[in-house]
Write a structure and sequence with these properties.
Layout lengths: L1 H14 L8 E6 L4 H10 L6 E5 L6 H7 L5 E5 L5 H12 L3 E6 L8 H23 L1 H10 L1 H6 L4 E3 L4 E4 L9 H6 L5 E5 L2 H7 L6 E4 L9 H4 L5 E5 L4 H4 L4 E5 L4 H9 L13 H12 L4 E4 L27 E5 L2 E5 L1 H15 L6 E3 L11 E2 L14 E3 L14 H16 L11 H28 L11 H14 L1 H7 L9 E5 L5 E7 L2 E4 L7 H15 L7 E6 L5 H9 L4 E6 L2 H10 L9 E6 L7 H14 L3 E6 L7 H10 L2
Parallel strand pairs: 1-2, 1-4, 2-3, 6-7, 6-11, 7-8, 8-9, 9-10, 11-14, 14-15, 20-21, 20-23, 21-22
Antiparallel strand pairs: 5-16, 12-13, 17-18, 18-19
Helix pairs in contact: 1-4, 4-5, 6-16, 12-15, 15-16, 16-17, 17-18, 17-21, 19-20
């Protein structure tokens, strides 16, 4: 099946330029019959790629013959082990943004549950792909800022021997810390993610940290690293983490442009397994360098009895609103989440692909991980530890020999174009919209090129690299959007402002941020759980509009205190031709966001942003003027107040003054 599927996919990639705008995939679930295939194939859009899913694990020879004659169609047996990875290939290679799913009317072929799982899987893959696309620029800039460290550590060889213990941040680790302290010298200890500083606070210093995030928010990494601490990471990892490590084992990151540029500079990096969890990378690293046996602990992949997902003090549980799922555990049924199940799937796919089981799961309790062997941590082999040997560091390429790569020019063009491909298009083009898009596209290309070249020059010349990742194009494009409805606010934001006082802003992607606020009573989350922010915002806005019987011809939406702006973006996606009036009580927070997040072009074109803050005494008059304009057009106002901010004093004051 694999060769035939990949050949069909290659045909579709070649035809990709002829696909209609929107990137749709038609998916049909039906019986393995030629007549059924022909019937439904005739009803699908002939210009869209077509995927036929049927029960079983192998192709029908008759159906394969029929597929040979249809360049736009593929078929997969749904129960085949590789079907999910094939779904991901289709989404990624064909740049798809949505699916149209249909099913057979015949009873007993597919259950409602099976159809729902297929739909959910495609939605997850598409969401993940789009999330990755909007973060490609972040990956590229992190890689360029890590270039001095990549040069310094190029060719690093690491050899290990003896037992290795990989620590995750599951809540059960709290019960094993005493044992770890007593037996610390018996194994090579790898900490995953942000667990390293937490272990150090507990008096347990890891030998190695495996870190895969492009954000290092919230920890003092300078206090954590010692000269002998090895950092294993990707080329696109957070520069604020990489700059403090003396010895770094860099692996190839997910950004294709930077990887090609590194190859051109003769800085070829090794590959490590890449997935949703750094534990996967840690296992692959430990095996590749020669540690044996390798064991896991703290990899619960479920919630504990108190509903905690991580070790105390490791993460703020207030950020999460878990969707709960019961799954098989090592000691009975456990309560997990869809996010943990995805991580579990990544680990199991890797472990089950090994020639022989070689990874012990010593987690106390936790979810069952297929492909691993259960062992109590107390029984983990205390044999010869074998401190890893670091030898054979190759001569690094002098920075003076590096030159600007044509692949980076290609990245500038494609990233700028990508920005507009994922922006919603109004069904009716407003006056000046096409000109706005052309000007904004040129602005982004110029700004991206300037940002990337400055990063490259700083890296080559060993100049001091700024601590934050600000994107000049994001700010300029945001100002252009704001200026259409409020030139005064655009002028105010044209000067970079200091960070908003009292707010914690965590940037995980370039599309949105997670925001909380420090108060006298602790920290208050001002955004939804960041794991589900986009999904929840879209559902909330859809329910709000449906409940108001919304029509873009009759209604305009007033957003009070948008914070992360995800609800405004969700409105823009669902109704790009709509009208929006946004009241922003924290202009300094907005100023920080538009340096790091690319959300402003995704709000409706007909939007007016007003800074409803004490420093803008004229804001009420601006608001009333815009309201009169909308009412003259026959528009009725609908008020949306972000539930997460409704009780904040500034928001209550705005509501009192506008009296909706």
């Amino acid at each position: 099946m694999s060769d035939f599927f990949h050949r069909k996919l290659q045909q579709l990639i070649v035809r990709g330029e002829t696909f209609p705008v929107g990137g749709a995939l038609f998916v049909y679930l039906g019986p393995d019959e030629l007549e059924e295939f022909d019937r439904i194939r005739q009803s699908a859009d002939p210009c869209c790629p077509f995927l036929y899913l049927y029960p079983g694990t192998v192709y029908s020879a008759v159906l394969q013959t029929r597929l040979e004659k249809d360049d736009m169609a593929m078929a997969l047996p749904l129960e085949a082990p590789e079907s999910t990875s094939c779904f991901a290939l289709i989404i990624n290679c064909l740049h798809l943004e949505r699916i149209s799913l249909a099913r057979t009317a015949r009873d007993g072929v597919f259950s409602d549950g099976a159809v729902g799982l297929v739909a959910e899987k495609f939605r997850e893959l598409i969401a993940g792909y789009n999330q990755f696309r909007v973060s490609e620029l972040l990956h590229l800039r992190c890689g360029l800022r890590n270039l001095p460290a990549i040069i310094r550590n190029h060719g690093l060889q690491v050899k290990g021997s003896g037992p290795c213990l990989i620590c995750g941040a599951g809540p059960s680790l709290e019960t094993q810390l005493d044992w770890l302290r007593r037996n610390r010298e018996k194994f090579y200890l790898i900490a995953v993610g942000k667990l390293g500083p937490r272990l150090k606070q507990a008096g347990i210093m890891p030998d190695c940290l495996v870190y895969a995030d492009n954000s290092g928010y919230g920890l003092d990494w300078q206090d954590f690293f010692r000269p002998e601490t090895l950092l294993v990471t990707y080329s696109c990892a957070a520069p604020e983490v990489c700059r403090y490590a003396s010895t770094i084992y860099f692996a190839q990151g997910p950004d294709p442009f930077f990887n090609r540029a590194l190859s051109e500079w003769r800085l070829v990096l090794p590959q490590l397994a890449y997935g949703g969890t750094a534990t996967l990378t840690a296992i692959d690293f430990a095996r590749r360098v020669g540690f044996s046996p390798v064991a896991l602990t703290g990899n619960d992949l479920c919630l504990d009895g108190n509903g905690m997902s991580h070790l105390p003090q490791y993460s703020d549980e207030a950020q999460f609103e878990h969707h709960l799922v019961k799954i098989e555990g090592n000691d009975g049924t456990v309560v997990s989440t869809p996010e943990f199940i995805k991580l579990k799937d990544c680990l199991e796919q890797y472990l089950c692909g090994l020639e022989k089981p070689g990874i012990y799961n010593c987690t106390a309790g936790g979810a069952c991980i297929a492909g691993s062997l259960r062992m109590p941590l107390e029984h983990f082999p205390p044999d010869d530890c074998g401190i890893p040997e670091i030898t054979g560091k190759c001569d690094a390429v002098p920075g003076s020999q590096l030159h600007w790569s044509g692949y980076l020019d290609q990245a500038v063009e494609e990233l700028a174009a990508m920005t507009f491909n994922i922006m919603p298009l109004p069904s009716v083009m407003p006056d000046g919209y096409a000109e706005y898009r052309r000007a904004a596209m040129a602005l982004l290309q110029q700004a991206f090129a300037g940002d990337l070249r400055q990063d490259f020059e700083n890296a080559v010349n060993r100049e001091k690299i700024p601590p934050t990742l600000a994107f000049s194009g994001f700010r300029q494009l945001a100002l252009a959007v704001i200026r259409r409805g409020n030139p005064e606010l655009a002028d105010y934001l044209n000067v970079n402002r200091p960070p908003a006082d009292g707010f914690n802003v965590e940037y995980y992607f370039t599309e949105y941020a997670y925001i909380s606020r420090r108060t006298d009573h602790g920290i208050v989350a001002l955004t939804d759980d960041y794991l589900h922010m986009a999904e929840k915002a879209e559902k909330t806005i859809a329910a709000f509009l449906a409940g108001q019987d919304f029509s873009p011809e009759r209604h305009a939406v007033v957003f009070v205190a948008p914070v992360s702006w995800m609800h405004v973006v969700a409105f823009g996606r669902s109704c790009p031709q709509g009208a929006a009036l946004i009241l922003e009580p924290w202009p300094e927070l907005l100023s920080e966001l538009i340096d790091n997040c690319l959300f402003m072009p995704r709000i409706p074109y007909d939007s007016t942003v007003i800074a409803a803050a004490s420093g803008f005494p004229d804001w009420r008059r601006q608001y009333q003027r815009r309201v009169r304009e909308l009412k003259r057009k026959g528009m009725e106002l609908l008020f949306f107040i972000n539930p997460a901010t409704a009780e904040q004093p500034e928001v209550l004051d705005i509501i009192r003054q506008i009296n909706p």
